[in-house]
Amino acid sequence: MHAEILTIGDELCRGEIVDTNSSYLASRLWDLDITTRWMTSCNDRESDIADALRLAVARSDVVLCSGGLGPTEDDLTVDVVSGLCGVAPSIDEAARIHLEQRFAGRIEVSPLQLRQVRVPTGARIYSNPVGLAPGFEVTVRDIPVICMPGVPRELHGIFDKHVERRLTELREARGDVERIARRIYRVFGRGESQISAACRGIVDDVAGATIHYQLKFPETLVKLVVRDRDQAAANARLQGMDSILRARLDPYLYGTGDENLVDRVMRRLLEAQLRVATAESCTGGMIGELLTRMPGSSKAFVGGAIAYSYDEKTRQLGVRKETLDAYGAVSEPCVREMAAGAAERFGVDYAVAVSGVAGPDGGTPEKPVGTVWLALAGPEALGIVTKKLSWPGSRDQVRTLAAWWALRMIDAAISMQLPDHEERQRAQRILVGEVKR
Amino acid sequence: MHAEILTIGDELCRGEIVDTNSSYLASRLWDLDITTRWMTSCNDRESDIADALRLAVARSDVVLCSGGLGPTEDDLTVDVVSGLCGVAPSIDEAARIHLEQRFAGRIEVSPLQLRQVRVPTGARIYSNPVGLAPGFEVTVRDIPVICMPGVPRELHGIFDKHVERRLTELREARGDVERIARRIYRVFGRGESQISAACRGIVDDVAGATIHYQLKFPETLVKLVVRDRDQAAANARLQGMDSILRARLDPYLYGTGDENLVDRVMRRLLEAQLRVATAESCTGGMIGELLTRMPGSSKAFVGGAIAYSYDEKTRQLGVRKETLDAYGAVSEPCVREMAAGAAERFGVDYAVAVSGVAGPDGGTPEKPVGTVWLALAGPEALGIVTKKLSWPGSRDQVRTLAAWWALRMIDAAISMQLPDHEERQRAQRILVGEVKR
């Protein structure tokens, strides 16, 4: 089964935004055993959208389309698709009600606003769980065409809620019944090429098995896939490779599945009823921002000190002036005192501290750009552990990597309290030692 | 002059990497007054690459192609393009010498390595300033096809060194000398549909003029474009619309060009030698993170308090317990005390405070999800100004909107110190009043 992905928007064709929807959809299709053969982007021009759709239904088995469903007059997807189907656009009543409830008493619903709840008459509707414009599916020359909004989170929401299941149904209706067993391994702390080198050969003698890598900076996803007409056989072969892969990725494998490190750490803090605080310099608040992404995080996250200047490290966290004078702010003694000061002042179980040279300026021969010191202060048994990063990336990358390492240290510290001896050992390896990448 | 961009690679069609080459090329073409009409991605499959190229030369005036020029056996671009031109691939001697010098004494140059220095015989060669595989240009059915490697920095290097000049030459040879005048207006504080409604009709009677909207949450870019064979005429018509558009977007227009609000605020703080601190609750560190994105921000950003809990609002910022008991944390009195406390304790010119209900839980009838209070404490003349947001979005959107409003308040406060009376009045309108969206 071959798919075509069509993304629509002048902003794409002017290079104003990078098209992440195509790769998102291609990756989801790949997971569903559907091969994306063509990905096309075109402008918000009626005749181009129509040409692109005509071509897509002529050379593909299913078409996924994103963009052009918004409220403005250059959002034309509904009009073009309706034209190709020989129907008129009409208001989707459920979406209209949702829109009016959303705006109730706040702003007036204008005719322009209503544009975004139109669909081709008779289309199969895919309600939008996070936004206003619904997705929909029509059939053009016997080929299913599924349209979704261009806003990535709305596209993701509609895909998760409706389209994934629908595509499976379409694939199986074609008698295309190969089953897939797959697992996503989430790896943080090593680069993509080191990870792919570590995994070499794992799938070589396993029938129907493939391995794929996806860099989602700062983590890498390793995807193990086994295909077989028999689901149980696929599952068994996948399971057979699991422990080998885990050993190869140790200790940088932190989890499997869809939960990333940010969500994992907050979930585990909440489960264990632990309280945490942050002391940030070069990350400037990024760790706090990550820790508060999840609803309910206030039960675990108490607060943080962003101590960008020397004086603030002293005032907010009690770092001694002598320490700063002797070792500088980017030093093990400084982050130790930052973490200890935060743990005490915020009265928390864990406090994490970060200070580094994010660059691009400010590097020295002893402390080049990318040098970051981290410290985690925890309960008595743990004490204060520190870690030095040394990875020369862009300012944004250095800061993101540092913030994720701070989370990874909290994650490992939680594991240190578990009864499982092996898990404690893996956590120990994460908490100790210098990291070069 | 219409361009087509073709990017080739299985990794694109499996969604393993995001295609940044297409947007890079589209944006460079846009700057050269060449409209990208189609962007296509396909797999490393000989017949698909050939089909894509045949289609591209049939519907475009120039084709830019990236990928498939590497040394491995699935790099097939040279073979396919040679086939379409009816020539054989041959080694580019200059590139071969470069490759051998590069590998001298380190690794042996294998036949596989030599694959990447092949070109279609007779092609125009574009040497690669940063890598091994040269770019090249051939003519297929009278249409120029320019091929470059898929590695972004090699593509950029070849584009800068050769392709930019070549495209200008091609465009002018066509007598296609339409010039573009354009300006980007950056708007924050109103939704895309309200902004497009406000701009309605502006370009209607202006020859060659178009207006485009791009939502880059939480801001919207309004792009005004005028095309004419005479650059001065295009510029003049653009300038003629400028003041009308500015009036329509007032006071939510904060700037023009490529600089976004985050960079603008930090630049202005640095220029005015002002110092700032943050007091964050629901944004959890996001404002601090934004303020520290720019290198050199430590001269203006002193630090911040992330005060997620009641106790921390009191301990770190001196918010009175009675205030919290009487009004709650999401209230004007609370953010007033947060901002005043931060300004005093951090010893800064400006302190900004945020407290809100980010959701999805925690809303009440009086304080529904999306209710956010902001306060800015500034020099004596300004005092403390507060603002209430009330916009029901997702947790992430509410937080991002709140963080940007905090920056916008700082931005407006800086404008309040300027001599320009009109600019002060606009700033005043931003600083005062409730914001509904």
CATH fold category name of the largest domain in chain A: Maf protein
The largest sheet of chain A is: 6 strands, mixed
Helix content of chain A: 40-55%
Tell me the overall shape of chain A: globular
| Superfamily (CATH H level) name of the largest domain in chain A | CinA-like
Name of the CATH first level of the largest domain in chain A: Alpha Beta
Largest interface (CB < 8 Å): A-B, 90 and 87 residues
Number of domains of chain A: 3
Number of helices of chain A: 16
| Secondary structural class of chain A | alpha/beta
Q: What's the β-strand tally of chain A? A: 18
Describe the overall structure.
- By secondary structure, the first copy, chain A, is α/β, with parallel strands linked by helices.
- Chain A has three domains: 2-173, 3-Layer(aba) Sandwich (Molybdenum Cofactor Biosythetic Enzyme, Chain A); 179-256, Alpha-Beta Plaits; 261-436, CinA-like (Maf protein, Alpha-Beta Complex), CATH 3.90.950.
- Helices cover 42% and strands 25% of the residues of chain A.
- The first copy, chain A, is built from 16 helices and 18 strands.
- The first copy, chain A, has helices spanning 10-13, 20-31, 46-59, 77-85, 93-103, 111-115, 152-173, 192-198, 231-249, 261-271, 286-291, 310-317, 321-327, 332-346, 395-415, 421-431, and strands spanning 2-8, 35-42, 62-66, 89-91, 118-120, 124-126, 135-140, 143-148, 179-188, 209-216, 219-228, 253-256, 276-280, 301-307, 350-356, 371-377, 384-390, 435-436.
- Chain A has a six-stranded mixed β-sheet, with helices on both faces. In chain A, strands 14-13-15-16-17-18 form a six-stranded mixed β-sheet, with helices on both faces.
- In chain A, helix 2 (20-31) packs parallel to helix 7, helix 3 (46-59) crosses helix 4 and helix 15 (395-415) runs antiparallel to helix 16 (421-431).
- Chain A starts with a strand and ends with a strand.
- The mean pLDDT of chain A is 93.
- Chains A and B meet through helix 1, helix 2, strand 2, helix 3 and strand 10 of A and helix 2, strand 2, helix 3, helix 8 and strand 10 of B.
- Strand 2 of chain A pairs antiparallel with strand 2 (35-42) of chain B, so a sheet runs across the interface.
